[in-house]
Write a structure and sequence with these properties.
single chain, 119 residues, rod-shaped
């Protein structure tokens, strides 16, 4: 059974683009993606370049699984960044609470002074 390459070519392109953004080298990114998909670099380049019109079911499944793994890692990374930012919000809330305490202390001191002065 063969699968049309158009459906999986976009997944390969996106994987290669993401890896090449971190490495800065498209050829090494293609080699890395090929390893993750269980194929040779040459086969992957032929898929990207359009030299291969169809691929086997096993290859298509490997590519889709590798793509899903990459997406899960990206989601986990972004979730980590979001959690870190939300932790900063908690710190900001404490800072805001400290400001409120300082303002209340200032008001209390003003009231004490007013009471001392007979107001």
């Amino acid at each position: 059974m063969t699968i049309a390459v158009d459906d999986i070519r976009s997944a390969i392109d996106r994987m290669v683009d993401r890896v090449s953004r971190t490495t800065g080298d498209r050829m090494s990114a293609m080699a890395s993606v090929a390893r993750k998909c269980g194929m040779q670099s040459r086969t992957l380049r032929r898929l990207i370049n359009g030299d291969t019109k169809a691929t086997g079911l096993h290859t298509a499944i490997n590519i889709r699984e590798a793509y899903k793994v990459q997406l899960r890692r990206l989601i986990a990374e972004m979730q980590g960044e979001l959690d870190a930012e939300e932790a900063k919000d908690e710190i900001m809330d404490v800072w805001s609470f400290d400001q409120q305490i300082a303002a209340l202390e200032a008001k209390l001191m003003e009231r004490k002074e007013a009471l001392k002065n007979g107001n």
